[in-house]
Amino acid sequence: MDFPWPAVGAPLSDVITPMPVIDEDRLAANIARAQDYMDAHGLAFRPHIKTHKIPQVAQQQVAAGAGGINCQKVTEAEVFADAGFDDILITYNILGPVRLARLMVLNDRVKTLRVVADSTVTVAGLSAAAQGKRLRVLVECDTGGGRCGVQTAEAATALAQAIAAAPGLQFDGLMTYPAIGGASAVEAFLRDTMARLTTAGLDCPVRSNGGTPDLFAAHLVPSATEHRAGTYVYNDRAMMRAGSCGTDDMAMHILATVVSRPTALRAVLDAGSKALTSDLLGFADYGIIPALPGARIVSLSEEHAVVDLTDCTALLPQVGTQLRIVPNHTCVVSNLFDRMVFHRDGIVTRVLPVAARGAVW
Amino acid sequence: MDFPWPAVGAPLSDVITPMPVIDEDRLAANIARAQDYMDAHGLAFRPHIKTHKIPQVAQQQVAAGAGGINCQKVTEAEVFADAGFDDILITYNILGPVRLARLMVLNDRVKTLRVVADSTVTVAGLSAAAQGKRLRVLVECDTGGGRCGVQTAEAATALAQAIAAAPGLQFDGLMTYPAIGGASAVEAFLRDTMARLTTAGLDCPVRSNGGTPDLFAAHLVPSATEHRAGTYVYNDRAMMRAGSCGTDDMAMHILATVVSRPTALRAVLDAGSKALTSDLLGFADYGIIPALPGARIVSLSEEHAVVDLTDCTALLPQVGTQLRIVPNHTCVVSNLFDRMVFHRDGIVTRVLPVAARGAVW
Q1: ipTM at complex level
Q2: Three-state DSSP state, A214
Q3: Distance (Å) from the C-alpha of residue B121 to the closest C-alpha of chain A?
Q4: What single-letter DSSP state applies at residue A94?
Q5: 3-class DSSP assignment, residue B85
Q6: How many CA atoms lie within 13 A of A43 on its CB side?
Q7: By the CB < 8 Å criterion, does A1 face chain B?
Q8: For the segment B140-159, what is each residue's pLDDT rounded down to a tens digit?
Q9: A4 vs B268: CB contact, 8 Å cut-off?
């Protein structure tokens, strides 16, 4: 497939829809605002690349002062190592011989590589595969997020001891992906575990907290040494609901075209679940169309969005009209497109490959 | 990224998760069952390639007797034209100069190409771009599906007349994507419109009906000349609920690994929304794990599935265990992976590129 990507200097009206477009000024402002906040509070900042999957954007984050990057998968880390990043945290329990072998190659290439573990099975696998440079391992802690992670400070301490005793591994600290609004629970868990680790004679240099929804509350966890966040770089409707950004901070829009106006109060757009994804994240519809206040994207199929115009207060759009959509969730959109179009005030500035798209393991 | 795809002859336990795997025997049986049904009822069958996006699978469908293929986007049709398919229906309102120019190139390459239109705007665009061979156009009719399509037989007839009068275009019939269970509404719409077209002196050779949920009720629309369906080739949980397939007809599973067992009743798998998508389609959870009856995939993030084991009646899985998941919706999974692994009885038979993945326009 030979896609006609727009030329630098072209207007966004030239972009073939559906296509995400990134506002350069908002992107830069989002990066600066988060970094300034972290700097003001003396917290290291480690952006999660899952939101953009683009090395050039991560370079902007590091240039602004980020102290390394966060990946979720070994293959993502490989893409960013290839692009020269030398401080990478993979916040995932890595299992299986092929993945572990690739991880150890990466550990020898990357100056500072860290992974996480929440079970003795993961620790045993990491240790058995370790060779060359010792691998730094953080204990993943469930501080209320309800996903992975050891459940108690006692369990965290026991697993830290297992890591410290495992050949080829180095216990390097704690990591958590907290519940929204969970600062006090994170602080209590970290503080309790750090005290137990001290008693056990173990150093705990890294305490890594995370999440965009509470990014600007990161200072409420004084025991953390760093904060990880991904979505803040583009922001989305879910982050606006969480209060971590406003309408003018949305750096990603999905450009779409009205392809049908079958009834007086229905429009159909060419941005379906293959462009917006079906992530609802608790919303009742699939995104916001700023130019059509009151319009609701009520259903998606792969290639169509059905828009209910019943409560729309703007002039109703005609077939062929290009519209911008604020998606519910930007991170999942990035995994659907081979390239992203960047612009400033509607003029294309660059078209970048989404280098880590499809890095599934 | 250099993915270690499994070798032909390897067991599925060698596959790096998360990864969709396709059961060759079930795939072949699904293709044969649908074609046999269409043959028995004298209906032409036009498989929709959106579900697999793989030319080799479409070749199996055509070899079984399918009378051409159905695509949704121009770029999908280009991929399949490159693979030699010469009878393609694009069921989309195609707008915009770049897309229209590419469509006309395709029209000259492909022996029988058809598109649809539901508005005079679409018809005017098609006509203005037409050159060389006349483009065959079907009127898209909304027979209750509530997406695109003209709303009445009168409107369908008027648009057919506009197509017939437009330079470079040829009115070739009607197309609908109906509501589930909508056979009688489709038949009434087609019959009414065909009568009006006869009065207007227009031939209507093609009446294209569609959908997997009602695939085996296609004979209840005697006025249709062909039926389109995509999902039947792999099937999924939504098709099982619709009654169009059973448990033994699921040709796609997502292989996943248990990466964490943080509590006695919680397991976390490495198949998140980047593997399963967040399509709920009315279900309360994100797929079925046949080996863990009663287990429920209660939430997804991009790289994790959280499984509630409270009501699981099987032995609970350990960290490292590989599981198979029946997804809610297979079509959307195919767009997330660069290749698909095929197998027979758990032994890899072939690994095929998903050639039309990412064909967004």
Answers
A1: 0.97
A2: coil
A3: 7
A4: -
A5: coil
A6: 28
A7: yes
A8: 999 999 999 999 999 999 99
A9: no
Lowest mean pLDDT among A357-361, B290-294, B324-328: A357-361
pLDDT of the residue at A260:
98
Q: Which two tokens stand for residue B172?
A: 């070739």
CB atoms within 10 A of CB A154: 12
pLDDT at B2 over 90: no
Chain A to chain B Cβ contacts (< 8 Å)? 177
Alpha-carbon distance B240 to B327, whole Å?
11
Which one of B119, B278, B360 has the shortest CB-CB distance to A261?
Answer: B119
Q: Which residues contact A64 (CB under 8 A, 6 or more apart)?
A: A31, A32, A35
DSSP annotation string for B168-182: TEEEEEEEE-PPTT-
CB B148 to CB A262 under 8 A? Answer: yes
Q: Is A3 on the interface with B (CB under 8 A)?
A: yes
Please report the beta strands in chain B, taking only residues with DSSP state E, as ranges in sequence order.
Answer: 19-23, 44-47, 69-71, 87-93, 112-117, 135-141, 169-176, 206-210, 226-229, 252-263, 266-269, 296-300, 305-308, 322-325, 339-344, 347-353
List, in order of start, the domains of chain A with CATH numbers: 12-20+245-353 (2.40.37.20), 24-234 (3.20.20.10)
- What pLDDT is stored for residue B213 in this prediction? 85
CB contact under 8 A, B273 and A273: no
Amino acid letter, residue A46: R
For chain A, give the mean pLDDT.
97
CB-based contacts of A308: which residues, under 8 Å, 6+ apart? A265, A266, A295, A296, A298
Question: What share of chain B in percent tops pLDDT 90?
Answer: 97
Chain B residue numbers touching A301 (CB-CB < 8 A) = 147
pLDDT band of residue B4 (cuts 50, 70, 90) is: confident
Instruction: Compute the CA torsion angle A60, A63, A64, A65 (nearest 10 deg).
Output: 130
Place of tokens 């399949």: B80
**Which residue is closest to A263 within chain B, CA to CA?**
B151
Cβ(A82)–Cβ(A58) under 8 Å?
Answer: no
Secondary structure letter of residue B48 according to DSSP: B
pLDDT reading at A1 higher than 70: no
Please report, as a single letter, which amino acid is at residue A7.
A
The amino acid present at A325, given as its one-letter code, is: I
Distance (Å, rounded) from C-alpha A140 to C-alpha A118?
A: 5
Which residues, 6 or more positions from A128, have their beta carbon under 8 angstroms from its beta carbon?
Answer: A100
3-state secondary structure at position A41: coil
For B159-178, the pLDDT digits (tens) are 999 999 999 999 999 999 99
pLDDT tens string A24-62? 999 999 999 999 999 999 999 999 999 999 999 999 999
Q: Which two tokens stand for residue A199?
A: 């008693």
User: Could you tell me which of A156, A162, A154 has the C-alpha nearest to residue A123?
Assistant: A162
User: Which residues in chain A are closer than 8 Å to B322, comparing Cβ atoms?
Assistant: none
State the nearest Cα–Cα gap between A44 and chain B, in angstroms.
24
Q: Does the beta-carbon distance from B263 to A147 stay under 8 Å?
A: no
Query: Residue A3 has what pLDDT?
Result: 78
B1: pLDDT strictly greater than 60? no
Nearest to A360 by CA among B129, B347, B254: B254
Other beta carbons less than 10 A from residue B347's beta carbon: 13
C-beta separation of A239 from A225 below 8 A = no
Q: What is the mean pLDDT of residues B67-92?
A: 98
Give the residue from B102, B118, B147, B286 with the most A CB atoms within 10 Å of its CB, the best one to mutate: B147
